[in-house]
Write a structure and sequence with these properties.
The chain has helices at about 1-20, 40-60; strands at about 25, 30-35. The protein is of the alpha+beta class. It has a two-stranded antiparallel sheet with strand order 1-2. A hairpin with a 2-residue loop joins strand 1 (about 25) and strand 2. The longest helix has 25 residues, at about 40-60. The radius of gyration is 13 Å and the shape is elongated. The mean pLDDT is about 85.
Length: about 70
Amino acid sequence: MELLFLIAAILAALNLLHAVVYKTIFFAGGWINYYENRSHFWAGFMAFLMFLFFYGGFYFFIFPAV
């Protein structure tokens, strides 16, 4: 299970990095451009930020022994 959460955290981090650099994010089954649809872009950005927090930080750093 730890491996699955680690993979999810890495993919979320890469998606956020891609969103910051190229202003597009993969969310809800497709690429969303910041300039075309800002509200959906920020919804995807916040969702993957929460994925990164819960899968990466919350699971591996806050409660690593549970």
